[in-house]
Design brief:
Bound molecules: FE2/S2 (inorganic) cluster
Order of helices and strands: EEEEEEEEEE
Number of domains: 1
CATH class: Mainly Beta
Number of helices: 0
CATH architecture: 3-layer Sandwich
Radius of gyration: 13 Å
Strand order of the largest sheet: 5-6-7-8
Largest sheet: 4 strands, antiparallel
Strand content: 25-35%
CATH superfamily: Rieske [2Fe-2S] iron-sulphur domain
Oligomer: single chain
Distance between the termini: 25 Å
Length: 117
């Protein structure tokens, strides 16, 4: 388990990149009120990072996260691709909790198993 930024350090509804050597890849943190969603920064289309520059992510005007490579758009709360070349696929969730002090705790995601539903 690793310590990420505190909830108060994150802007609302804006992707923030976070790296930690205990995690298998860079993580995208997205604050939604007093909750946080965390996704591996790996697009399910071709495995590229979603950002176009360090910690720079595209968002659509209606609040979706967009992969800079080919324009796949993702629901920031569910991680599901809702438009683009990998529609129906999902970003890999990183288990995230917020403790009473507002510290975000991240755990390594389950190993990828393409045959599991
Ligand atoms: S790698 Fe993300 S849309 Fe192609």
């Amino acid at each position: 388990m690793s310590s990420a930024p505190t909830l108060e350090q994150l802007p609302q509804q804006q992707p923030v990149a976070y790296s930690d050597q205990e995690l298998p890849a860079e993580v995208i943190l997205i604050r939604d009120g007093q909750q946080v969603a965390a996704w591996l920064n790996i697009c399910p289309h071709q495995g590229r990072p979603l950002n176009y520059a360090p910690n720079k992510f595209l968002q659509t005007p209606d609040g979706y996260l967009m992969c800079a490579a080919h324009g796949a758009t993702f629901n920031m709360q569910t991680g599901e691709c809702v438009n683009g070349p990998c529609i129906g696929a999902s970003l890999r969730a990183v288990p995230a909790t917020v403790n009473q002090q507002g510290q975000i705790q991240l755990s390594a995601p389950e190993p990828y198993n393409p045959t599991a539903n």
